[in-house]
TrEMBL record:
UniProt-listed InterPro entries: GH43_arabinanases, Glyco_hydro_43, Glyco_hydro_beta-prop_sf
SUPFAM superfamilies for this protein: Arabinanase/levansucrase/invertase
Taxonomic source organism: Paenibacillus pabuli
Keywords of the record: Glycosidase, Hydrolase
Protein name: Glycosyl hydrolase family 43
Keyword Hydrolase tagged: yes
Amino acid sequence: MNVHRLEDIHFRDPYILAIPSRKKYYLYGSIGQNVWKGPAIGFDVYESEDLIHWSGPSPCFRAPADFWSDHHYWAPEVYEWEGRFYMFASFKAEGVPRVTGVLVADQPEGPFELWCRSLTPPDWECLDGTLYVDDQGDPWMIFCKEWVQVEDGEMYAVRLKPDLKGTIGKPDLLFKASEASWSVGGGEQRNRYVTDGPFLYRMQNDELVMMWSTSGQDGYTLGLARSVSGKPQGPWKQDEKPLFANNGGHGMLFRTFEGQLCLTIHAPNNHPNERPVIFRMQENHGQLTLMVNPT
């Protein structure tokens, strides 16, 4: 199997699953070559023991002939839950709103198969669902309602059933993209605001924060919101300054096997140059800081 460095991997929306028992990291992402045009081929995975050398790609999901979606296979995130591995990802078909669905596999490398077609409302254009498990052990999904439908992109939370096959109650609106001072609107009226890539993290000081991405002054931008209640329902308050403002984003956090907190994003945000990048992070007194040089 081929071995690559991150700069050789054409992925958007990178997600890294660390499995200590295997001493391996698994990298998933939107396959850059077919994100925007042409039929999607599915999802791939890379494996690494050191975050530097990555073997792959290996196909972890290929849609069967009767699969309902045929394009926009985006932002796969994989979680271990009750002994199996669940992939949350975005899917779309012509004339059908984009959804976050769930795939399942017995191993992190797949093969994944359909578990739940959609966890988002059937008439909403949605994407980038991420799993969060609260202090009571209940699963939630945080997801985006697209600017293409509402112009000012929205962020929602919905509680999930324990088997991750459905939702409990209606989604709660958390915030709109324009509420962040660092978010910049697009379009002729400058009123189209993007919400992308939420990821929740419990800080050492017990604050619940959410990373999410939008358009900023210098391109794609990654910022931070904080839950005033400490719960996924919020209310959420936006930090005044973004975490990363140099045309990169859709981030998530993970810890190395040595305990180092790391951030991965794709950068730059320009097709076909987007690549996964990993930064070491410092966490002090409720603040996250990127270390200057990526790993």
